[in-house]
Amino acid sequence: MAISSWNVLTQLSEAAFRLGQAITRVYDLTLLNRSRVASTFYEDLQEQVGALVSVEKIHKNFVVAGIPNADHYPVDFCIDGKNNQPLFLFGIPNRDKARLTTIFLQYFIQQKVDFDSMLVFANQEDIPRSDLARLSNVGGDMISSLNAEDDFRRKLLKKVA
Length: 161
Known about the structure:
Layout: H1 5-52, E1 58-62, E2 75-79, E3 87-92, H2 95-110, E4 116-121, H3 129-138, E5 141-143, H4 149-160
Helix pairs in contact: 2-3
């Protein structure tokens, strides 16, 4: 029984097409998982903050009054701290947000805003060392990930309780 070269080519092209579809589906799943994790990071952070601090003390997407272009520098969460000093809490899910937060904090320092800050990372190990070094120069307490719940609780309550 002879197999024609046309049948072999047809089967080969169909197999290559199916393989391409499977690879595309797997790639789509990885993108969905990454975007889902990024989108829930801020929700999870807000939930953890809300479990420790009364809702009246939390101001989401806070804009600092009295500085130029304040609306260009929103704070993820401003929490009423001890001695009327606000705690600016930033969630850092990735390198881009680490860089942006560095810029925001430097601007607040330049504008002589009185504040304390806390930085909560999705995973601090994902941030390049040079970006992390610049951020640590201007930022306050750091929490390496949302999984470090005991450290987060201890540091947050020390600032706001």
